[in-house]
Amino acid sequence: MLAIVCPGQGSQTPGFLAPWLELPSVAEHLGALGEVVGLDLVAHGTTSDEETIKDTAVAQPLIVAAGLVAAKTLFDVELSTLPVVLAGHSVGEITATALAGVLSEADAMKFVGLRAREMAKAAAVTPTGMTAVLGGDPEEVQRAIEAVGATAANVNGGGQIVAAGTLEQLAALAANPPAKARVIPLKVAGAFHTQHMAPAVSALEELRPSLSVEDPTVPLLSNHDGREIASGSAAVASLVAQVSRPVRWDLCMETLKSLNVTGLIELAPAGTLAGLAKRGLPGVKTVAVKTPSDLSAALELFAADAEQAASTEEEPV
Questions:
Q1: 216-244 burial by CB neighbour count: b if 16+ within 10 A, else e?
Q2: Candidate list 29, 44, 89, 90, residue with the active-site label
Q3: Lesser CB count within 10 Å: N end or C end of the chain?
């Protein structure tokens, strides 16, 4: 079995979609997704500068659209016919939920567009941000984050915990970091997955009745506890709630380990989750699909997984 994973905010970089625009139909696909949210995603993925795409209202729809484009380019069959499990980190959970068939692409973009706008508004109330803490003893890191009044908003595994809070709280953490840990500010403009985002939750609850929701056709993991989500309604409820509660990517990786996943493919804008998997899922092959040139390596991973499954079935019992 392979894991298909979708990254979260902060994974975007200026011009990262430029190579994808060289493929037929990608510009049209991006354009259609952008129309849903009222954004020129082609421009934001190719020519917009770092400050522009750091804006939450732009970054989140751009990241979800990038994942949908990469998936459509990679897979020429229904995902439900393949031995895969889906998971997404933070806003990437919306991408994964769409790929699992719970939401249409249009509803996924409608959801992420509102999520992004409301989270941006919530972030503007008080200057807040997020900081990655790399290394150190996990319990000591948690205590250090709590000591300054911040929240462990992303527990990512692989020696990475992300703190979220006011800029003053994050400055205090940087001034007195946990032992043997590095503190790195992230390119996000808000304390996501904390109580600071509560107003956005209310707005998304109001949107829920207008969404057309189906049950997952592919195993889909929750950011909340790493478990498989049983129904479409539960998946959307999870998407709404995760805006203001911590992301437990470490638990998602534990589930992938328990499922004996042999390979992991991270969709664009890729790199972060594949890096965490190299540390948290030793022995699992990873492919970060950053550009179309990485598609062949992803397909090779599928071929290797199929070959391994066939050889296992042929073994005598």
A1: bbbbbbbbbebeebeebebbbbbbbebbb
A2: 90
A3: C
